[in-house]
Amino acid sequence: MQGSSIFKRSVVSKGPSETLRIGRALGRSCRAGDVLALEGDLGSGKTLFVQGLALGLKIARPGEVRSPTFSLIHEYRGRLPLCHADLYRLKSAETLHLGLEEYWGTGRWVTAVEWADRAQKFLPKTSLRVKFETLSPMRRRIDFSGPPEWKKKLPK
Ligand SMILES: Nc1ncnc2c1ncn2[C@@H]1O[C@H](COP(=O)(O)OP(=O)(O)O)[C@@H](O)[C@H]1O
Ligand SMILES: [Mg+2]
Question: Per-residue pLDDT averaged across 34-61, rounded?
């Protein structure tokens, strides 16, 4: 059964530094070609998580990682190159024209996509889905799901 081969894990982050730490741990174990599909409302922690990812990927100035709202895609150089996309302002159909698949197609990048639900149709099946939910001003529920290969890359 396909459903049983999907790996799932949930954590509750109790503050910004914990979300940063979770992202960093994942960034440390990411491999070239990995795609992270981030979902959740505004302010739920997606960009902060990508800053953590950037730390783990040894990107020189992870503090510069912001939501690429105007340019849609930002590129950063690190242990592995990071592509950070934000589809907030796009309609689902428009995301097809971004050329995002060229990032994971090369197998060289780590790609993190905010508002990934807008690109659901063409994101690779191997993506890790990371869903953020605001529980209270400081608490965020983070639901990870994806193929079982991701299990060993996630922090305990
Ligand atoms: N546990 C938490 N995890 C992540 N962000 C948190 C947490 N608690 C409070 N915050 C705050 O929520 C905001 C998240 O912003 P951001 O990462 O830009 O969200 P998004 O990209 O989802 O819109 C930040 O201001 C951050 O300080
Ligand atoms: Mg954001």
Answer: 96
